[in-house]
């Protein structure tokens, strides 16, 4: 049986392990515990305490980008609802216009106290209410003539929110192009 003070690479002896340790009181470049039991920091990190200006600028930039993203994500919900109502009404007007052209029956749209109504289309073929009850038509509630002729006169309707009357969207056509949504009053 072989006994060696140094051992071999697969089974080192205690003496070989002790010889590989640094002298007592020496600082290890990789950290670890000192003889007094206190934790040693790596030498490179011991001299570096705090953040560099570049690291702080990167953190501030990340915070600014995150804040901008959140502010864009949280748009004013009432403005979004009014925009959604205007887009929906423009699509409904174009649908009624297409039905009028295909059937040859004149179709009219007019506002009612609780919403709107399409005359000349089959009952319940198109909706007759707003998605949000604060939506209302600004100005005179004249009827829009949607057909059956392919070219109709210039027509428009202005929607506004009952809680914020300063917000308004205009749905208009020149008679040839489809109804589109623009902001503000008639031009």
SSE layout and pairing:
Layout: H1 14-20, E1 32-33, E2 39-40, H2 43-46, H3 53-73, H4 77-103, E3 108-112, E4 115-119, E5 135-138, E6 144-145, E7 155-161, E8 168-173, E9 180-183
Mind explaining what this structure looks like?
With 187 residues, the protein is α+β, with helices and mostly antiparallel strands. It has two domains: 48 residues, no CATH class; 107 residues, 3-Layer(bab) Sandwich (minor pseudopilin epsh fold). Helix content is 32%, strand content 20%. The strands form three sheets. Strands 5-7-8-9 form a four-stranded antiparallel beta sheet, covered by helices on one side. The longest helix has 27 residues. The N and C termini lie far apart (106 Å).
* Arithmetic mean pLDDT: 81
List low-pLDDT spans. none
Per the principal axes of the C-alpha atoms, what is the gross shape? Answer: elongated
Count of individual domains = 2
What is the helix content? 25-40%
Spell out the CATH superfamily of the largest domain. Answer: minor pseudopilin epsh domain
Tally of extended strands? Answer: 9
Instruction: Give the strand order, joined by hyphens, for the main sheet.
Output: 5-7-8-9
Q: Report the top-level CATH class of the largest domain.
A: Alpha Beta
CATH architecture of the largest domain: 3-Layer(bab) Sandwich
N-to-C terminal Cα separation, in Å?
A: 106 Å
Portion in strands: 15-25%
Order of helices and strands: HEEHHHEEEEEEE
